[in-house]
Amino acid sequence: MIARVRAGQPEAYAELVRAHTGIALRAAAALGAGPDAEDVVQQAFVKAYCALGRFRDGAAFRPWLLSIVANETRNTVRAAARRTTLAGREAALVGAEPVIPESADPAVATLETERRAALLAALEKLSEEHRLVVTYRYLLEMDERETAEALGWPRGTVKSRLNRALRRLQRLLPEGGAPA
């Protein structure tokens, strides 16, 4: 696909955009872009297109794109000099992907909402590097190799930071790790 884009076929890039927009939006929302998530993703796709000449042949596009999304999210948040609140992040995550089916039992839905809020609150208390590794690995469902590529870290670093982050999350969550 990248070779087709480099060969001057813009429809190939449109296919890449369609295939990766959902995960890019979830990444931007999970990393704090809030209502700016769509703008962040659009800018990330523009930057990715402009940087395709530096894209390494044979590398996976998704982790490369998500690292651009993460950097663009960071830049947007810093430039705006504001931090999105926990409620804003939760709303962005809920808006990005439905979590609880409408047909769910109200009691189950309430419990899931409470668990999500507890998890997001605990994630907020992690250091940025721990929050990033947990977000990429579990919220964005990237495997270990993709997470390492997206963050620009060795796989061993991903493993160790993820282990430390999960242990910290377990201590931060109610009832020793099981959200209420």
Automatic annotation (TrEMBL):
RNA polymerase sigma factor 70 region 4 type domain: residues covered: 117-169
SUPFAM superfamilies given in the database record: Sigma2 domain of RNA polymerase sigma factors (SSF88946), Sigma3 and sigma4 domains of RNA polymerase sigma factors (SSF88659)
Presence of keyword Transcription: yes
PROSITE patterns (UniProt xref): SIGMA70_ECF
Record carries keyword ATP-binding: no
Gene3D superfamilies in alphabetical order: 1.10.1740.10, Winged helix-like DNA-binding domain superfamily/Winged helix DNA-binding domain (1.10.10.10)
Protein name in UniProt: RNA polymerase sigma factor
Taxonomic source organism: Streptomyces cellulosae
